Amino acid sequence: MGSYLSKRAVWSGISLFLLVVMVFFMARLTGSPADLYLPIDAPNSMREEFARLHGFDQPVLVQFFTFLRGLVMLDFGESLRQNRPALALVLEAMPTTLLLAFYSIAIALIVAVVTGALAAWRPNSIFDRIATLLSLIGASLPNFWIAIVGVLVFAVGLEWLPTSGTGSVAQWILPVAVLAIRPCGLIVQIARSSMISVLSAAYVKTARAKGAKSRRIIFVHALRNAMLPVITVAGDQAAGIINGAVIVETIFGFPGIGKLMIDSITYRDFAVIQAGVMVTAIAIFMLNVVIDIAYAILDPRIRMN
Known about the structure:
The N and C termini lie close together (8 Å). The radius of gyration is 24 Å and the shape is elongated. It has twelve helices and no strands. Helix 7 crosses helix 10 (214-252). The chain has a domain at 103-269 and 290-298: MetI-like (MetI-like fold, Orthogonal Bundle). By secondary structure, it is an all-alpha fold.
């Protein structure tokens, strides 16, 4: 286990470094922040002073090596918009996004696994056909469309839920539901297919012959062996939810990493963009490690190598 985690850490570190390098140079292709933070008619002397104060007067390669020196000390620089350390801003916003992603994938996984398992128990039944149809629809709908329709119907039309904010449980319902619909639809299909395959195995037929209850066969004998492909898709969708939170947080005004990144890109706040990409990438790396460990727990035949 230790050697496995060490290897994953090394390769992930290389990937993170390459990603940060790419983001550093691509962010600077968007133009000078002085165009946004200074008046349109600002004289050249003011622009030069702005660039000097924030280190933009140096060649790009010099700026890059300065950034790398700060990166070793986890110093991403100051936010241009808020005059605060960029990493502090990102770490303040990240818990909201992680909670949003956790609630969404947990609800999607529970609903999808139960629905897929029950649908597989009676293939081509009315329940199976309805579950398949709804899951295909849910998997096909983009998050931004679901979010807009949800706001129009439940917030504006029916006035059941608020349109934005994070202060109450009601304010979390729409964002969590929007992020959970698509993963739920995909996982239902995977869980159903995997369960149909497992339910045709010899040990399941033996359990049926011995008179085991349907609930025990589905949720004890079959479900654990059907969970590996489900965990694979769920992990991929969880990483997608963290990235997809950008749209949902922007629509619902959630103070998470997604909204912070959008605002930082809009205002060319390079330090916050770099810190946000780094923290998000680390979170996704840790998620992948957790998924690999879950493989070994569900199936002891899998070895960490």
